[in-house]
Amino acid sequence: MPHTPTTRRAPDRGRSLLGPALELVHTGRAPTRSALTAALGVTRATAGAVAGELAALGLVTVDQHPIGSSRGRPSHRLDLAPDGPVVLAAQLHADGLTVALAGLGGSLGEPVRHPLPARTDPASVIGAIAEAGAELIRADHRRCLGAALALPNPVREPEGTAPAALTFGWPGDTPAAALFAAAMAAQDLGPRARRPLPTAVANDANLAALAEHRHGAGRDARHLLLVTSGHRGVGGALVVDGRLHTGSAGLALEVGHLTVDPLGRPCPCGNRGCLNVETDPAALLAAAGRPSDPTGQLLDQARELTRTADRDPAARAAVHQVVDRLALGLAGLANILNPDRIVLAGLHRDLLAAAPDRLPEAVIRHSLWGRCDQVPIAASALAHGGLVGAAELAWGPYLADPQGVAG
Amino acid sequence: MPHTPTTRRAPDRGRSLLGPALELVHTGRAPTRSALTAALGVTRATAGAVAGELAALGLVTVDQHPIGSSRGRPSHRLDLAPDGPVVLAAQLHADGLTVALAGLGGSLGEPVRHPLPARTDPASVIGAIAEAGAELIRADHRRCLGAALALPNPVREPEGTAPAALTFGWPGDTPAAALFAAAMAAQDLGPRARRPLPTAVANDANLAALAEHRHGAGRDARHLLLVTSGHRGVGGALVVDGRLHTGSAGLALEVGHLTVDPLGRPCPCGNRGCLNVETDPAALLAAAGRPSDPTGQLLDQARELTRTADRDPAARAAVHQVVDRLALGLAGLANILNPDRIVLAGLHRDLLAAAPDRLPEAVIRHSLWGRCDQVPIAASALAHGGLVGAAELAWGPYLADPQGVAG
DNA sequence: TCACTTTGTGCCGCTCCTAAACAAAATACG
DNA sequence: CGTATTTTGTTTAGGAGCGGCACAAAGTGA
């Protein structure tokens, strides 16, 4: 029975309310001090002390000027400090890269989009991201406490490698996290950024799910399933009890190869009728008999198609076919995961908009024991879910222990 | 912004080490006081106090007589008190009911099996279970602190109803939890049982997964997927970070309708080739061309078949076919859930024993990016997983707050 | 203006836990 | 066989977090 020396200190169990309190303000669930008191389930005295400490850390402002209320003494408002610290959120797309600064509360600065560099090897792409991010950090007057990057491919945990970065043909097990950390470390971040700047890398669908759960269409859902379709296949993500379920290696929710049509189109995986090839932009265009320009913007073309479904019979039929396939996949996932909310993003969001009744009805029909009849299927509410989610990832350590911002 | 009164007390944050400490002893991870110190990450003084408190509660004995060790002063042994309290574990099968008393540590008394009562309506069956359980409780000299029942059908949370108890043709939404609570309350439990006796009801596959995670083949797995096949279809369960994922309504992991053969046998759900109908006892017997006696013990016949696979070519071919289907289903689940261990029970356990290489290889072949090549597929290690799991469920509140045993 | 309600604040005390120093019980080595 | 070393148990003091309480403050409603 070998075990570590002896007296090892735990990361102080104390100060346990500070993290939950900041998270409540961060997610907008504690707009006033009395709401914080109730949500934490502590006495007013304790909540006051906690709020004061968050204010002392420069994260929160306690506004004496009240907000119109019902009866009794109005409670002080709790707002996130406008000049509080920020984090860098970055996202890599198939056709570009985006960076933005983000404060607490899911607030995102204006995203800045850059084209991909000429060379698309891992180091060049990630280096370009770091450069664009550093520019943003230097130009801002607020303190930058971390950076996170959303990637359009799986990210293996805890190594932070990309086992199958198909978009750019990166080699297997590309050390994305290490590359990003090194690239950020090599940048000039100006005088106000934390050195070394903590960095993190994760899959974009996972981050979008986290973002929707905290700030979007998944608020107050216990188990949130997000499904999205973009340029390259279908992505899924699951939030369980408020925390991302990324699986034991970070590879969970690879939902693209659920069978939704046994006689369907062949998939590179060897099977037929995978969700990936039946509900992606190319599938929708093919179902409508449209020539899918291989060099063009398939996603944009497919989105446009969903918008013409109300007047174009061929488009409508195509939407219905793909929606039915998608419903089968969602029902299968619901049978396994039993979420209490499903959020659709990317092309799937547009499909839901084009068939707002047919899709939920089909999901309910295919799920067992009506386990979906109470499950709302919602459209994603965030325009930049990946970026907001990256911000959440970067904020993570500070939400767990707000004292960290003082380090 | 309506919220509850004001000064509401949280369930004391203090005494936070008592629960984790008992859980460590309970799962065998802290056989000595110094192991407890290390596992809790606290000082020796604190661990000593905690151990003393557990001893004072009558749950643990601190044995001064040491166990042979390496160097230095030998640490005191921590054992579960032999005459400590017990809970009642009960399980309903398709062809009978089983009850047993269980102490901490996953120890199970001799299970007592009873036939089903003549009438199989919910109240009669659950009443018979309660009666058999009460007999056990009265006859034992230890204090009984709770009771839990494993049912072979889904259990909706938090209502505790059975939406589809196909086995006995119970009506939908049978209030199983309420019936069990009432049935136990109506029993004479002798002088030592807690009154009222806390009761709980859950699905047997879920409980078996919990049991395997704590005391069986799933120990020190982070995310454990259990798949089993019994008399009635395929059951699945998932343990995430040590806690059961039962979904938002308790209906998660209904894996029986994953498609594993697009051209396979028809399933009552309307599709073809569901895991349910392709990997259950009847499917195995059919694949071997055996007449499946509909009134007989399909499960036992199928199990026997797997044992003849090494000398009977027809049996081997049947096993291989079903194993391949099962592997497809497991790979699909692994793609979604990314567990770090898979445990097979019921008939699937026998299939693994009959094809110990073919099954893992096929799972790896069908999973993406080799996410399964490090995932052990193990046979269930507990003969009575459902009962052990029911005991875990009944112990749950006391593991969370050992002070509760003094109530 | 006077209840009444709701919220903020200061103070005390309790509980849990760490730190530090010391005592105890074994092994390793002369 | 005795002593040094190692590992563990125990005692004590002290600190941090949080509840309880009493009181003050700031509104609404009659």
Distance between the termini of chain A: 37 Å
Most extensive protein-chain contact, per-chain counts: A-B, 64 and 63 residues
Structural class of chain A: alpha/beta
Whole-number count of domains of chain A? 3
Give, in order, the helices and strands of chain A: HHHEEEEEHEHEHEEEHHHHEHHEH
Work out the helix count of chain A. 13
Question: Number of DSSP strands of chain A?
Answer: 12
What does this entry show, briefly?
Two copies of one chain form a homodimer. With 407 residues, chain A is α/β, with parallel strands linked by helices.
Can you walk through the features of this model?
The structure is a homodimer of 407-residue chains. Chain A is of the alpha/beta class and 407 residues long. The first copy, chain A, folds into three domains: 18-80, Orthogonal Bundle (Arc Repressor Mutant, subunit A); 86-206 and 385-406, 2-Layer Sandwich (Nucleotidyltransferase, domain 5), CATH 3.30.420; 219-379, ATPase, nucleotide binding domain (Nucleotidyltransferase, domain 5), CATH 3.30.420.40. Helices cover 37% and strands 15% of the residues of chain A. Chain A contains 13 helices and twelve strands. In chain A, strands 5-4-3-6-7 form a five-stranded mixed β-sheet. The longest helix of chain A is centred in the last third of the chain and has 25 residues, at 313-337. The model of chain A is unreliable at 1-12 (pLDDT under 50). At the A-B interface, α2 and α10 of A face α2 and α10 of B. Chain A binds a DNA duplex (30 and 30 nucleotides) through residues 6-7, 9-10, 12-17, 32-34, 37, 42-49, 66, 69-76.
